[in-house]
């Protein structure tokens, strides 16, 4: 008989091995549908690796793609730590992007050192406000936040389309539904000339470090973890569960909002309704791969971004659909979930007792 | 003003209500079957996509329409098996696993479609289920046109409501399924397998979800489009709470939602662009959220929902 015996503590190397192993297993499993489709498997993977990290330019592109994923990964990590199932990062990202355009595309004319922070704070607040609604519904009415956050994603996207076809439409854009461009004073600086890398990456890394410190070194971090481990015990121990949940909501929604600001003010320059190809949902995968560790989110986001960038480049070269990337991402999530069991439990073979 | 009320008297509106409600009936029945056994299945959105794609592809490749229905159900059950294995014996987070199943099913369906049709400008079509057009019913005023426009697939949905209601309320299997979602220890004490019952329920429920997807490609439309599910699965999860996990109320919830959706579509044409169309399109989602929030307080959740069960552990 096989028994799962809980481990007292998981060594760091094992946690890391599970995450890396999950990525490898996902790639191996992806080879099956890839082979069935008749594509050259090895060549496809080689082209993906080259496309993601084969040159400085390619890797810069991967880091650019990783930037929003770090933000949404952090958003999922902090929420899931407290067992607040925020699946609405996609909508919160768009709320942040809307706020960025609303504040940064001409409403305020200020020097960059004022306008950039104002835009970022506005975007974070917009994302946070959007998540506070489901958190309130959860605390007040006991409504499941998963469904509410998921459904709000569709509402927000429709709202964005409405704004882009109406009040926020750029009349100069030849009929395309897109917003006016953000002012130069609101734009995040480019990091290296000639590359698309922008200040959003630095901000994302700073956020990851700050969140790490908050969770591991502060009282509020302890409360967040306690609420996640056992909300009833936390309440019994007199912890302010409601306020801890509200804080988690603010942080998670705010981080997702920053993803939107970073994409608009750092990369695209204006808002369209196809700003995010599912960064919000991919953030859940990033956070799970990182075992909900804020610092782990950075490499996990780079891996997932590499898969997307690599698959795009491979798809252009040999015409295999880039939906392959989504397949790798989905399989990574399921692999790391199963692998996580190995980290949390010792698997022991028990001989059946003979009477 | 009268025009807005006049919509309710049109046979066309009621026919559309039934058409929009049908996939949701399957979805809510599937979700409530899973949840009654104690397992939340957020794979629903992806299983809808996989059911829509696989059922349609099977018919496109030459199977008869009912063959496509069976294929979709089998594909759904397969994803249910994955979700069941990960969440029941392994006890993994039902939330995150469900999202994983949705991502997996969606990406497999999209990838498969792209492999089968690398560069098509317009989606290939099939000959979908024909309208029923029952000889005697045809001549009945109002009811004739409303029901005559429906297909055999919608009849199947109504049959499933009755079957599931009877199964849950009147059979020993139904009793065991309800018990396993409320009190798995008691089921174990009866010598029944908690793991077996739960995995079976998730597989059957997922098969029903896949039928909801297949309805869209085999009956409502005649082709598969990317993004055609567009949150229908998530809506079903909300409607399941609204329906308090009862098949009869599930039918009611799906019909209400269908009516609202059909109504907003017609209201859009009446207002003639004075109100942005997105406002109307938001209504079904906002309605689902409102329905969930309103009933959440007194919702009678299956008591062991989302609680993994391990033999010999309490």
From TrEMBL, chain A:
Keyword annotations from UniProtKB, A to Z: Cell membrane, Membrane, Transmembrane, Transmembrane helix
Broad class of where this protein is predominantly found: membrane
InterPro entries noted in UniProt: ABC_transp_permease
Pfam name, any one: BPD_transp_2
Transmembrane segments: 12-36, 56-80, 92-108, 114-137, 146-164, 197-220, 241-261, 281-311, 323-343
Key word Transmembrane present: yes
Membrane topology: Multi-pass membrane protein
Subcellular location: Cell membrane
Listed PANTHER family: ABC TRANSPORTER, PERMEASE PROTEIN, GUANOSINE ABC TRANSPORTER PERMEASE PROTEIN NUPP
Protein name, per record: ABC transporter permease
From TrEMBL, chain B:
Recorded superkingdom: Bacteria
InterPro entries the UniProt entry points to: ABC_transp_permease (IPR001851)
Signal sequence, renumbered to the chain: none
Keyword Membrane: yes
Pfam families: BPD_transp_2
Membrane-crossing residue ranges in chain numbering: 12-32, 39-59, 65-88, 95-113, 151-169, 199-218, 279-296
Main location: membrane
Database matches in CDD domains: TM_PBP1_transp_TpRbsC_like (cd06580)
Compartments reported by the entry: Cell membrane
Sorted UniProt keywords: Cell membrane, Membrane, Transmembrane, Transmembrane helix
Topological relation to the membrane, as annotated: Multi-pass membrane protein
Protein name in UniProt: ABC transporter permease
Annotated organism of origin: Ancylobacter oerskovii
């Amino acid at each position: 008989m096989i028994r799962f015996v809980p481990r007292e503590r998981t060594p760091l190397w094992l946690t890391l091995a599970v995450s890396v192993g999950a990525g490898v297993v996902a790639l191996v499993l992806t080879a099956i549908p890839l082979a069935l489709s008749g594509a050259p498997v090895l060549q496809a993977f080689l082209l993906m690796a080259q496309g993601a990290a084969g040159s400085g330019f390619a890797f810069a592109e991967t880091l650019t793609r990783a930037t929003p994923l770090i933000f949404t990964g952090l958003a999922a990590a902090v929420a899931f730590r407290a067992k607040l199932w925020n699946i609405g990062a996609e909508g919160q990202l768009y709320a942040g992007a809307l706020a960025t355009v609303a504040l940064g595309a001409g409403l305020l004319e200020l020097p960059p050192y004022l306008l950039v922070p104002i835009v970022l704070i506005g975007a974070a607040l917009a994302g946070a406000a959007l998540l506070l609604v489901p958190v309130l519904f959860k605390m007040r009415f006991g409504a499941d936040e998963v469904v509410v956050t998921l459904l709000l994603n569709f509402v927000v996207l429709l709202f964005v389309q409405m704004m882009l076809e109406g009040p926020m439409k750029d009349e100069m854009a030849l009929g395309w539904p897109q917003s006016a461009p953000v002012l130069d004073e609101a734009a995040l600086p480019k990091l290296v000339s000639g590359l698309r890398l922008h200040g959003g990456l630095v901000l994302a890394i700073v956020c990851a470090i700050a969140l790490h410190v908050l969770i591991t070194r502060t009282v509020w971090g302890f409360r967040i973890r306690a609420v996640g481990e056992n909300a009833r015990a936390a309440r019994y121990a007199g912890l302010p569960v409601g306020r801890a949940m509200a804080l988690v909501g603010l942080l998670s929604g705010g981080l997702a909002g920053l993803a939107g600001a970073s994409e608009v003010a750092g990369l695209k320059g204006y808002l369209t309704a196809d700003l995010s190809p599912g960064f919000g949902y991919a953030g859940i995968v990033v956070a799970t791969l990182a075992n909900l560790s804020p610092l782990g989110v950075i490499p996990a986001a780079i891996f997932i971004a590499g898969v997307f960038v690599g698959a795009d480049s491979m798809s252009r070269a040999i015409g295999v659909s880039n939906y392959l990337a989504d397949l790798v991402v989905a399989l990574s999530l399921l692999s790391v979930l199963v692998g996580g069991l190995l980290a949390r439990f010792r698997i022991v073979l028990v001989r059946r007792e003979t009477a | 003003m009268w025009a807005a009320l006049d919509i309710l008297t049109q046979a066309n509106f009621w026919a559309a209500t039934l058409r929009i409600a049908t996939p949701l009936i399957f979805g809510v029945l599937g979700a409530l079957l899973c949840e009654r056994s104690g397992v939340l299945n957020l794979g629903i959105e992806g299983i809808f996509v996989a059911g829509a794609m696989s059922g349609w592809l099977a018919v496109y490749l030459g199977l008869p329409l009912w063959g496509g229905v069976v294929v979709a159900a089998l594909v759904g059950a397969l994803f249910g098996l994955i979700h069941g294995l990960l969440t029941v014996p392994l006890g993994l987070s039902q939330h995150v696993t469900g999202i994983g199943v949705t991502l997996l099913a969606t990406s497999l369906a999209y990838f498969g479609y792209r492999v089968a049709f690398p560069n098509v400008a317009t989606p290939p079509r099939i000959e979908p289920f024909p309208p029923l057009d029952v000889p005697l019913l045809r001549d009945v005023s109002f009811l004739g046109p409303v029901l005559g426009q429906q297909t055999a697939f919608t009849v199947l949905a109504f049959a499933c409501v009755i079957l599931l209601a009877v199964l849950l309320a009147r059979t020993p299997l139904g009793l065991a399924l309800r018990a396993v979602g409320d009190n798995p220890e008691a089921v174990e004490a009866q010598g029944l397998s908690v793991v077996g019952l739960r995995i079976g329920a998730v597989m059957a429920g997922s098969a029903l979800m896949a039928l909801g997807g297949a309805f869209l490609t085999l009956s409502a439309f005649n082709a598969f489009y990317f993004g055609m599910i567009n949150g229908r699965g998530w809506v079903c999860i909300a409607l399941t709470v609204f329906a308090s996990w009862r098949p009869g109320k599930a039918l009611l919830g799906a019909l209400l939602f269908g009516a609202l959706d059909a109504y907003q579509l017609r209201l859009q044409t009446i207002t003639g662009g004075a109100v942005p169309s997105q406002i109307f399109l938001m209504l079904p989602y906002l309605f689902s959220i409102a329905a969930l929030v309103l009933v959440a307080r007194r919702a009678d959740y299956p008591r062991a929902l989302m609680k993994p069960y391990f033999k010999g552990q309490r």
